[in-house]
């Protein structure tokens, strides 16, 4: 008989905690600037990376959801031009396709393609360049080393370790990547 009041009290505590969590989330949704049910989308029409709740004194944080293949696709602004990129922690550098580089105003001469790089498609020559700034949400990284690769070497530009290493950190958790500027 003495166990029933404890079980009853635990049930009430659970209900109060769950109700507070549920109504706290609904209250936050009511005070949001976005209309209910509106999802952020990128210029390309895909789901956008969403920023985590602002931290008062901490670094900016960005959370990116994995696509259906488990890839993390982002649309950073490089020198004020938006580029579609795959986050690749296995790539040593930010790697730009020739097409994206030309869109950014970067046109390396054929003689600049001196760097030998090992890719999933084999060994390829790249041209080393420096990007003034790469902005991803509220995260801004300056002076990022990059390489330009021939379009046939990559299907999409890569956001590699030369960017990721300048962050305070990044991690992958259950289908989402968290970047800390």
Features:
181 residues, alpha+beta, Cathepsin D, subunit A, domain 1, 2 domains, six-stranded mixed beta sheet, four-stranded antiparallel beta sheet, 3 helices, 36% strand
How would you characterize this protein structure?
With 181 residues, the protein is α+β, with helices and mostly antiparallel strands. The protein folds into two domains: 38 residues; 131 residues, Cathepsin D, subunit A, domain 1 (Beta Barrel), CATH 2.40.70.10. The protein is 21% helix and 36% strand. The chain is built from three helices and 13 strands; from the N terminus they run αβββββββαββββαββ. Strands 4, 5, 7, 8, 9 and 10 form a six-stranded mixed sheet that branches. Strands 1-2-13-12 form a four-stranded antiparallel sheet, with no helix packed on it. Strands 3-6-11 form a three-stranded mixed sheet. A hairpin with a 2-residue loop joins β12 and β13. It is globular and about 80 Å long.
